[in-house]
Design brief:
Largest sheet: 3 strands, antiparallel
Number of strands: 6
Order of helices and strands: HHEHHEEEEHEH
CATH superfamily of the largest domain: Winged helix-like DNA-binding domain superfamily/Winged helix DNA-binding domain
Shape: globular
Helix content: 25-40%
Distance between the termini: 30 Å
Structural class: alpha+beta
């Protein structure tokens, strides 16, 4: 996603577009993996030493509520990444070592619906966690 696309996504949200929000979102958009709030804080503090964890987390929460980013839990902490640009329904494989994701073009909901056709599903999230080739080689598993 280029800078123009990033800015357009922020502008299309209900959030006020500020230089720090642009910077934070650009950092997330530049990574193809889930990133912890602490990593975002470290990145932002390198340029803005007085920035607090609360400010970073509040902005990440706002980004998630606006659908700009997705959240998951990795190694006991919440991690974030820019919402996938795929326009069709899908899920992800997620590396617990580095946070990289890979698109998974299938959905187990077809099976779930056969178990109880009268159950009304209103939402679901399906993620598969493991270790990518690089992390297995580095012994991060």
């Amino acid at each position: 996603m280029n800078e123009t696309e990033q800015l357009n996504r922020l502008r299309s949200s209900s959030l006020k577009v500020t230089p720090k929000r642009i910077e934070m979102y650009a950092y997330l958009a530049g990574e193809e993996r889930y990133i912890s709030a602490k990593e975002v804080l470290d990145y932002m503090r390198a340029k803005h030493p007085t920035m607090s964890f609360d400010t970073v987390y509040r902005n990440l929460k706002s980004f998630a509520e606006e659908g700009l980013i997705e959240a998951t839990e990795l190694n006991g902490e919440k991690s974030f990444r820019v919402t996938c640009s795929a326009t069709h329904h899908h899920h992800h494989l997620i590396c617990r070592g580095c946070g990289k994701t890979k698109l998974l073009d299938l959905c187990p909901m077809r099976y779930v619906e056969t178990v109880d056709p009268e159950f009304e599903v209103v939402d679901h999230k399906f993620e598969i966690y493991g270790y990518c080739k690089e992390c297995k080689l580095e012994g991060l598993n």
